[in-house]
C-alpha cells in the first residue's frame, strides 16, 4: 500500500470558537471579507450574528445566492462578485452547499474560466483563502478538498478537487447547530454517518482514514438520536459535530462510494437534498456491500455498540441498527423523494459513471444500481 | 472541549516511497542538501543508499555527529555546519535522535542563538525545510512538531516545539526497517506503543488523537512479535511502520505522559536509549494509572485483541498482555538499565517537573515517581 496524506486546513474546534473569527482573519492578513452563505443562514440570523464578530477595520460583502446542490451558475456569479468587490478572503458559512460553492468560487475568482473546466484543468495555488464555518453536523466539507457542483446544462454533478481549494481554517463550533430543526439534524447526521462508513470501507482507503471513520461512527451512533430528540442537548450536539468532523477527515482522504453515486445522481436529476438522499440510501447499499466487506461492517456494528462475535451476524445487526436509528429519528422512506421509476435506468447509469463508483466495496454496474433503485422503491 | 489540530507535514507512505526523494526535493526547489543522520545509519549503508537516489543537479553534505538523546552541542554544531555549507534543505534520516536534532538545527541555523533559548523564545516561520525519513518503526518524530534535546550543562531534557520546525514531508518507507536488528525492533516498537497509549489517554487529548492512538495500538499489537521474530516479515514491518506513524500523529496532537517523564529523566542523567526506557517503564506506569483511566485501558485491551466485557478486568488483562509481549520480544527488566537507587529521588523530581507530567491520567508527585522507581527496581 502507498498513499499520501495532507491536511491543508487548520482545525479549530469547540463551543464558542466562532468568536475567534476576527482574530483568525487578522492572522491571515485580510481586510475585505466576502461571506458566502444561503438564504436559510440569513433568515436564521446566523449571518448577522457571525458578521457582528468582526472588528471595524474589516469591510464585508455577502453573497447568498447559493442553492442546494450548488449550481455552476452560482459559482460563476459568486466568482464575478468576488472579483467585482476585490475581496481578499472568503468566510463560508453554512452547510455543505455554501462551503462547497465557496471552494469553487475561490479558484474561479482567481484563476478565471468556467468552473466545469477545473475537473480537467490544473488548479494552481492562487485561490482566495477560505475560513469555513459549518452550521450543520453533517457535511465535513470544512475539511475536504473537494467541491461538488451541478452542471445545469447536462444535469450531472462534477467534482473540483485540490488541496489548494481547501479551507485555510475550519472553525468548527457546535453552538452554531443548536438551532437546527430536528429533520435537518436527522438527515445531515446520517449523511455524516455515510461519510464515516464510506470513508472507512472505500476500496482506496488507508489506515489514517479508517481510524478516523471508525471513530466517527462511534460518535454519531452515540449521539444522533439524542441530538434529534432534544436540540438543546449540548453534549449530543457537540458529539455530532465531532462525528461529522472526523467523518469529513476520513472520506476526504479515502473517498465516498456507492451511496454517494446514487445520491448525486438523484441530486443532479431531481435536485433533492444531498444529505437526505444519502441518509435514505445508506442501509440499503450496505446490504449489497455486506458480502464484500463483512469484517469491516462488523467493526462498524461494534462501533455502534453491538456486541456480537460472529462477523456476519454483527455486520447484519449493524445495518439493522442503522435502519432502526433512521426510523427513530423520522427519516422518510425512499418513496418520499418522489422519483419516477422511468428514470431509474438513467439514474443507475449516472451512478455507475460516478468517479467514486470504483471505491465501492461491491463492484456495482448500472444493472446493479437499477435493481437496487427498484428494490428500495418497493419497500 | 476546545482544541486546534494542524498537520504541517505532508505524509507519503509505503514500500518504496523513498525512491521519490529526488522528485520531492525538486518540488521543494532545493539544490544543496544536508543529510542529518548518525553513525549507525552510515555504518548500515543506509545513507549511501538514500544519497544515491539524488540526481546530479544536487550537491550533498552530511552531518552525522548526532548522539542518542541528542545533545545541545550536536544541535549547535549541526546549525553551524548548515550555515557554513549554505544548505537549503535538510534530509533527516534515522531514528528519533537524528530527526529530533534536525528539527532543532532547522531553526537554529536560520534564527541563530542557543537551542536552549527556543523553549522560551518565539520560533519564527523561517526554518530550513526538512524531509524526514524514519528508519525505525518507533519514533513518530517524522510527523511531530517537537524536538527533545539534552541540556548537557544541567543534565536535563528540554523540548523545542512549533509547527514551523515540523518536517515539510514525512517520507515513510517500511523497507528501510527491514534490516533493523531484533532488539531495536523490540524497543522502538514498544516505544511506539507508548506513544499510542499516552496519546490516547493523555489528560489533554482530543478525539482525533484518540482515534489515531487507538488504531495504532491495534497495528502494533498485531505485528510487533512477528516483526521481532522475523525481520523479513514484510507485512509485519509494514504494520509496525504504520503503527508508529499513527502513534506519532496521536501524541503530537495530544501529549505524552508519565512514561516519558520517567524515561526522559533516565535519558538525561544516564543517557540510556529513550525507546528502551519507555518500553521498560510502560506497563508499570499503566498499573499506576489503571484506576484513573479504566475505560480507556479497557479499550486499549480490546485493541490488543482481548475480549472481556468487564472494563476493570479487561484493562488489567491489557497491561498483562503488554508485559507478556515485552517478555516474548526479549525486552529486559528495569535492572538492565543499571540505575543507582541513590538517584531515584532526583530522577523522581525530574519526572515531576517534566512538562508532560500534568498529561498523565494519575496526578503523579515526585513521591509517587520515587515509589515507582523503587517498585520496578525490586521486580
TrEMBL record, chains A, B:
<protein>
    <submittedName>
        <fullName>Iron-containing alcohol dehydrogenase</fullName>
    </submittedName>
</protein>
<dbReference type="InterPro" id="IPR039697">
    <property type="entry name" value="Alcohol_dehydrogenase_Fe"/>
</dbReference>
<keyword id="KW-0520">NAD</keyword>
<dbReference type="InterPro" id="IPR056798">
    <property type="entry name" value="ADH_Fe_C"/>
</dbReference>
<keyword id="KW-0560">Oxidoreductase</keyword>
<comment type="similarity">
    <text>Belongs to the iron-containing alcohol dehydrogenase family.</text>
</comment>
<dbReference type="Pfam" id="PF25137">
    <property type="entry name" value="ADH_Fe_C"/>
</dbReference>
<dbReference type="InterPro" id="IPR018211">
    <property type="entry name" value="ADH_Fe_CS"/>
</dbReference>
<feature type="domain" description="Fe-containing alcohol dehydrogenase-like C-terminal">
    <location>
        <begin position="185"/>
        <end position="374"/>
    </location>
</feature>
<dbReference type="Pfam" id="PF00465">
    <property type="entry name" value="Fe-ADH"/>
</dbReference>
<feature type="domain" description="Alcohol dehydrogenase iron-type/glycerol dehydrogenase GldA">
    <location>
        <begin position="8"/>
        <end position="174"/>
    </location>
</feature>
<dbReference type="InterPro" id="IPR001670">
    <property type="entry name" value="ADH_Fe/GldA"/>
</dbReference>
Amino acid at each position: 500500500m502507498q498513499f499520501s496524506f495532507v491536511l491543508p486546513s487548520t482545525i479549530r474546534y469547540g463551543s464558542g470558537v466562532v468568536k475567534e473569527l476576527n482574530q483568525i482573519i487578522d492572522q491571515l492578513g485580510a481586510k475585505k471579507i466576502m461571506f458566502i452563505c444561503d438564504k436559510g443562514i440569513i433568515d436564521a440570523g446566523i449571518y448577522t450574528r457571525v458578521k457582528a464578530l468582526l472588528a471595524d477595520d474589516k469591510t464585508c460583502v455577502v453573497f447568498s445566492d447559493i442553492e442546494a446542490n450548488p449550481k455552476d451558475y452560482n459559482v460563476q456569479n459568486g466568482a464575478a462578485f468576488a472579483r467585482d468587490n476585490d475581496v481578499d478572503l472568503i468566510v463560508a458559512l453554512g452547510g455543505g452547499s455554501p462551503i462547497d460553492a465557496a471552494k469553487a468560487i475561490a479558484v474561479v475568482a482567481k484563476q478565471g474560466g468556467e468552473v466545469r473546466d477545473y475537473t480537467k484543468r490544473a488548479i494552481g495555488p492562487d485561490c482566495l483563502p477560505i475560513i469555513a464555518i459549518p452550521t450543520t453536523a453533517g457535511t465535513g466539507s470544512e475539511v475536504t478538498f473537494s467541491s461538488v457542483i451541478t452542471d445545469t446544462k447536462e444535469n450531472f454533478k462534477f467534482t473540483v478537487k485540490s488541496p489548494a481549494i481547501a479551507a485555510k481554517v475550519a472553525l468548527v463550533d457546535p453552538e452554531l447547530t443548536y438551532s437546527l430543526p430536528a429533520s435537518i439534524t436527522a438527515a445531515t447526521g446520517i449523511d455524516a454517518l455515510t461519510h464515516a462508513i464510506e470513508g472507512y470501507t472505500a476500496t482506496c482507503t488507508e489506515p489514517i482514514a479508517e481510524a478516523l471513520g471508525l471513530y466517527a461512527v462511534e460518535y454519531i451512533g452515540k449521539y444522533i438520536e439524542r441530538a434529534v430528540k432534544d436540540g438543546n442537548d449540548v453534549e449530543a450536539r457537540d458529539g455530532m459535530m465531532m462525528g461529522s468532523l472526523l467523518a469529513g477527515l476520513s472520506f476526504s482522504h479515502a473517498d465516498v462510494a456507492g451511496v454517494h453515486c446514487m445520491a448525486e445522481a438523484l441530486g443532479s436529476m431531481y435536485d433533492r437534498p444531498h444529505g437526505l438522499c444519502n441518509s435514505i440510501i445508506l442501509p440499503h447499499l450496505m446490504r449489497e456491500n455486506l458480502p464484500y466487506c463483512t469484517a469491516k461492517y462488523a467493526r462498524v456494528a461494534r462501533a455502534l455498540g453491538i456486541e456480537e462475535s460472529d462477523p456476519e451476524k454483527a455486520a447484519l445487526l449493524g445495518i439493522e441498527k442503522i435502519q432502526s436509528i433512521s426510523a427513530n429519528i423520522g427519516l422518510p422512506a425512499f418513496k418520499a423523494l418522489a422519483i419516477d421509476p422511468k428514470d431509474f435506468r438513467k439514474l443507475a447509469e449516472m451512478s455507475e459513471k460516478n468517479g467514486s463508483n470504483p471505491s465501492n466495496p461491491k463492484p456495482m454496474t448500472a444493472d446493479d444500481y437499477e435493481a437496487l433503485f427498484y428494490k428500495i422503491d418497493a419497500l
